[in-house]
Amino acid sequence: RQFLTGACALVGAGLGAALLADSANAATGIKRKKNGQVEVTVAQIPGLQQVDGVVNLGTVKGIPTAVVSTGPSTYTALNLRCPHAGVTVRDTGSEWLCPAHGSQFEIDGAFISGPAGRALAPVRSRLRNGILTVG
Fold this sequence. Notes:
Layout: H1 2-27, E1 30-32, E2 38-41, E3 54-60, E4 63-71, E5 74-79, E6 90-91, E7 95-97, E8 104-106, E9 111-113, E10 125-128, E11 131-134
Antiparallel strand pairs: 1-2, 2-11, 3-4, 4-5, 6-7, 7-8, 8-9, 10-11
């Protein structure tokens, strides 16, 4: 009986945390849709107000994804898996770096150096009325 009570409490806490996380994301302009897409209200994301600004979306339909501001009112969604070995790259503040083998990419995903040999792949996205739909 104690086990079941404890298990139910843990499940409830997990659900509560997930709901709070969704509420926090909605408050900051990021909304996860039931179909797996993510809607980003770009005006509500401070990092996207400047060129080369980045917002990490976590996973979108199973793909680690970030959005980069590439110009005034232009944005690119990037698949953050290194094309060399599939390891998730890290944002260093000025570029993306693969922790596995050292491949480097410009903040917009363009290839710089390393064994990857090519740019980070784009993730499908569409901008309409200030909302970027990703996935």
